[in-house]
Amino acid sequence: AYVLFSNPRLYWIPQMLPFLNLGGTVFEPEFSTARGLSVAAALLGTMLPGLEKEKETRGTNAKWYSDNLSQGCLRHIGSRRNEYPYLRYPLIIDDRDLRAGILERLVAEGTGATGSYPTPLNQLPKLREVLADDTEYKYATKIAGSIVTLPVHSGVSAADRENIKRIIEAVTHAN
Fold this sequence. Notes:
3 strands; 175 residues; mainly alpha; globular
């Protein structure tokens, strides 16, 4: 199910189910880590042989984003090389309205883009209790309000990347 619905063309299906809280940050300190370890081990055993290929694909997709999403309002975080196996490709859009418009369109078209964390981790309600850290992290706050993360997994095709680019360019030019 994970592989099926992580395909960008189908991502809208689980994303529209509010009880899944996709893109949300859920922290449950009571969560038992022992529960499901055998399932995780079995899943890892089936995924391990394809790990290097997945890592290579993620690097290729990240490099494509880096090379092809270069409008003046967009900034890239991290390496511009394809060796780094991003879990999601981070894109910073400093203009909050533009970021909101881009993210809204990307999500509406089922691209698999997300906004990542809504605030610094120490400000999330359940983590606030656990971390007991009331420090104001101004750069983390700025990033939380400006980041858009793009999918890089092996289900992302060249057509998917082009669609993401088209959407970003269309929203950017409309503003």
